[in-house]
Amino acid sequence: MGSVLPFPGADPADAAIGRRLKHWRGQRGVDVDTLAGALKLTPEAIRRLESGQAHMTSTQLAVATRHLRLPVWALVSDTRAY
Predict the structure, then answer these.
(1) What share of the chain is helix, strand, coil (3-state, %, to 5)?
(2) Rounded distance, CA 7 to CA 26, Å?
(3) What is the pLDDT of residues 2-43, one digit of tens each?
(4) What single-letter DSSP state applies at residue 1?
(5) What pTM, to 2 d.p., does this model score?
(6) What totals of helices (H) and strands (E) does the chain contain, helices first?
(7) Among 34, 32, 25, which Cα is nearest to 75's?
């Protein structure tokens, strides 16, 4: 019998960005469907981003922060950039 490869874990950086995305989406009162529409993704893709199982591109970061009315640092760092 062959061995089964383990499911790859979430990248810690992607998990941190996803956690912040979910936090700020909730703070701004934006539902998953609305954010998915803004990013031209499915709601399931947004859930994967928020769980750290998918990587956000720089374009997606820019669109998400614009839609949530946030500076980019709010998704990429816990420390203010100004």
Answers:
(1) 55, 0, 45
(2) 29
(3) 666 555 677 899 999 999 999 999 999 999 999 999 999 999
(4) -
(5) 0.84
(6) 5, 0
(7) 25
